[in-house]
Amino acid sequence: MPNFKAGSHDRVFSSQLNGAVSLTDPTILLQKEYKNKENILFFDLNNIAESTSIVDESLRDLDKLKKIAQAGYEVASKNHTWTEIAKKLLSAL
User: Would 35 be classed as within a structural domain?
Assistant: First the structure.
């Protein structure tokens, strides 16, 4: 995620809300709310080549991948829907 080091991009949450596993570089927000290999997959931007290994390894255990997807969905649906974002914005105003 280019230059989103404190927050995130809606693509991370949108993919999770659609049942996918997000593979992304970690940010302050994501590290606070997510745990690598439990509800998201992180890779190091300084070692992008490692991301292919992460994908290959993950595809070897589809049951685990489904659990990561479900756990990611639970976090995103609780904290990162447009409704939740609107509530946060309204309370800040």
Answer: yes
Task: List all residues 6 or more positions away from 54 whose beta carbon is below 8 Å from its beta carbon.
Answer: 23, 41, 43
pLDDT tens digits, one per residue of 2-53? 566 878 888 999 999 999 999 999 999 999 999 999 999 999 989 989 999 9
Put simply, whether the predicted model's pTM sits higher than 0.90 gets the answer no
5 located within any domain? no
Helix (H) or strand (E) holding 16: helix 10-17
In a domain, 85, yes or no: yes
Phi-psi region of 25 (alpha: psi -120 to 50; beta: other; left: phi over 0): beta
Residue 4 lies in a domain: no
